[in-house]
Specification:
Elements: E1 6-11, E2 14-18, H1 28-36, E3 41-47, E4 52-57, H2 64-77, H3 92-115, H4 123-138, H5 147-159, H6 164-190
Antiparallel strand pairs: 1-2, 2-4, 3-4
Pfam family, one: HMA_2
Keywords: Membrane, Transmembrane, Transmembrane helix
């Protein structure tokens, strides 16, 4: 699997590469030093806000394609995040939201399976409801204007407290849709 990057500009001796993985890597100085120590590379500057790496090099010693191979190899080898497939589409906060949403979805599924065995709420029902509430309240900045919060409150009043699992499921579904919308929006902003 190749690293996801794009060349912003390239002239002999100077290369700017946009590398979304830089958004999640805080070892900028270490990366700059490592690349600067390669033969033929004079200076490396990382700009984390725009996720770019500017490399000044000697074209007669090292070529642009060799530098791109170094970048690809370094970032492919340095990926240890369990949700690495989302790395290029989402920031770390959004990846945490996706992880919480997946965990909540599993809890809701387990609660529904267990509910068939007993009509009374058990640990899984309470865990699913608590996990849904935590997921909703930790996602986004303005908590009470989010569609998932509004959906949770409206479905609680319409379905009642006896149907907490259904309220959690509806709220989780709206939150999951909102998270995937945020992922698509962040991916579009990445390439503007």
């Amino acid at each position: 699997m190749e690293i996801n990057y794009r060349i912003a500009h390239s002239i002999p001796g100077r290369l700017r590469v946009i590398i979304p993985a830089l958004d999640h890597n805080n070892a900028y100085i270490t990366i700059e030093r490592m690349f600067s120590n390669l033969k033929g590379i004079n200076k490396v500057r990382i700009e984390p806000i725009i996720q770019s790496m500017v490399i000044e090099y000697e074209p007669e010693i090292v070529g642009r394609n060799m530098i791109l191979r170094y970048i690809s190899l370094f970032f492919r080898q340095s990926r240890f995040d369990s949700m690495d497939r989302f790395r290029f589409q989402a920031g770390s906060d959004l990846r945490k939201d996706v992880f919480r949403s997946l965990c909540t979805g599993v809890l809701i599924l387990a609660a529904y399976v267990r509910k068939g065995f007993s009509p009374r709420p058990d640990f899984f029902v309470y865990a699913a409801v608590i996990s849904t509430a935590y997921m909703v309240l930790t996602h986004g900045e303005n908590k009470f204007r989010h569609p998932d919060v509004i959906t949770g409150i409206a479905s609680m009043f319409s379905l009642g407290v006896n149907n907490l699992l259904q309220v959690a499921m509806i709220t989780w579904a709206v939150n999951a849709l909102e998270i995937f919308h945020d992922m698509r929006r962040s991916q579009r902003l990445l390439y503007i």
